[in-house]
Recover the amino acids of this structure.
């Protein structure tokens, strides 16, 4: 998904095609992780099955401040979000639902909804409770961007360390290179890689060949 702002604009404009397009771009692994965190934060039960997360529509209705389930049901119908009656689950999934959601095995009324319902309800609903959910979603997105930036920095640092190791290995072999032309080329490469990084005056002298130093001082 591009951003929560994109989803909010699409919801405000009632642009159903855009909403479905944004929802379709969801990364399923990220979706489940986010749904887990939201369930823990707002205190609702979550069924995890085949890499997806599902919550009871009736329970989410309370999270969003609806007086009953009908308001959230209409939102799901309006935006054609995923809704699954518990009665339609297979035996394995139903057993998981009984354990995770605390429902009865013969439950024929409970309906499950997925992360798309949680997102859209957070952007569209106008209750005080839903505004809290919306603020939470925006904070989660912001935190994700900060974490992503920190990860990029860490990766960049890791690459620089690997490059430094490689340069050090090459430098250690310089004095064993008998071909002066090759030594000059390697020395020039090291100068280019390290230029400015060590913040040392006359850095070229670090790897300059003896004859090159003599030529500079002549």
């Amino acid at each position: 998904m591009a951003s929560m702002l994109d989803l909010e604009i699409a919801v405000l404009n009632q642009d159903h095609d855009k909403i479905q397009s944004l929802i379709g771009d969801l990364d399923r692994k990220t979706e489940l992780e986010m749904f887990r965190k939201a369930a823990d934060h707002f205190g609702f039960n979550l069924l995890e099955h085949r890499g997806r997360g599902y919550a009871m529509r009736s329970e989410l209705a309370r999270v969003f401040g609806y007086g009953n389930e009908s308001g959230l049901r209409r939102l799901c119908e309006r935006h054609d979000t995923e809704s699954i009656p518990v009665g339609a689950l297979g035996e394995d999934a139903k057993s998981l639902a009984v354990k995770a959601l605390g429902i009865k095995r013969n439950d024929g009324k409970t309906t499950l909804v997925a992360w798309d319902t949680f997102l859209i309800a957070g952007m569209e609903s106008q209750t005080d409770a839903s505004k809290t959910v919306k603020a939470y979603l925006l904070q989660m997105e912001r935190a994700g961007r900060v974490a992503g930036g920190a990860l990029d920095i860490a990766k960049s640092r890791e690459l620089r360390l690997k490059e430094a190791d490689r340069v050090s290995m090459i430098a250690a072999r310089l004095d064993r290179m008998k071909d002066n032309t090759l030594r000059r080329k390697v020395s020039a490469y090291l100068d280019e890689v390290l230029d400015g990084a060590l913040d040392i005056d006359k850095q070229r002298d670090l790897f300059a060949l003896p004859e090159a130093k003599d030529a500079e001082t002549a």
